[in-house]
Structure prediction request, 312 residues.
Amino acid sequence: MSRTPKTPEDWWSTAIVEMQPGTIRFRGYAIEELIGRVGFAEMVWLLTRGELPDRRKAELLEAALVAAVDHGPQAPSIAAARMAMTCGVGINNAMASAINMLGDVHGGAGEQCVALLQAIARRLDEAGASDGAAVKAAVAAEMTALAAAGVPDSLAGAKVYAENPSLISRSHFARHLVKTGRAPDVKSVFQSYLVKGKPGFVPHQWASLAQAVSWIRASGGIAVVAHPGRYNFSKPELHAFLAQFRDCGGAGIEVVTGSHSPEQYLEFARIAREFGLAASRGSDYHGKGESRADLGVLPQLPDDLKPVWHDW
Prediction:
């Protein structure tokens, strides 16, 4: 229920920004606390959702913003803006002409994209993993489910719509189903095939922590927790997980990696000391242009930590 403003100040106040002489606050955060601390994607999340996102949510929004950058002057909305400019109007009018052309056909299937991301997030939450291998496993599982539901060659069909065959999303599968006449539009595909309870949805099944550690040890390996900063754990949850990991025979934790910040190097070095775990260091390098850090650029481990390779 909205309330009736009683004063001019009340009329102009919002829950988003507070401005006083010498003070600017966004959602309760002073502007000087945000500058240099948060990125643009995190700021967008704060303004629209009222809270700062965790690392995983910030990275997801960052990826979405990058993907949303227009792909050239030949796009219909860009062409409309350029044409409007030839009429002598200002930039605001030209941009308005372009924005008015955006919808589910041009500009991307926004609702379907969000449904895709939410479905993937639910799947990964159920699996307790969010790394690249887990995401690829979800795509493969959906491909298998679609084939079982009577959609043969779904992977080959999806690749037709993917510029990078290694980055195939559910929207690519959806376009294949529309093209082959199995659904009238992308939205219908998601509703009929790709959400929980439909034939294209396959939940993950993962080994327990004790099983995973025992398999690693039985094969002669050393169980190490990789890039712990990427997991959506609270501090109590992380400590409980690491205690269980250590009790199961886990021996190490990755302290320095391409996905960790310098602050996290220090934090996970402290945690390695606290739990008596060996430390590892890795760039998480997957190839040029596809990795957070190039080979050889990350700092060394702190001198007092025992590296996992110490006894090799």
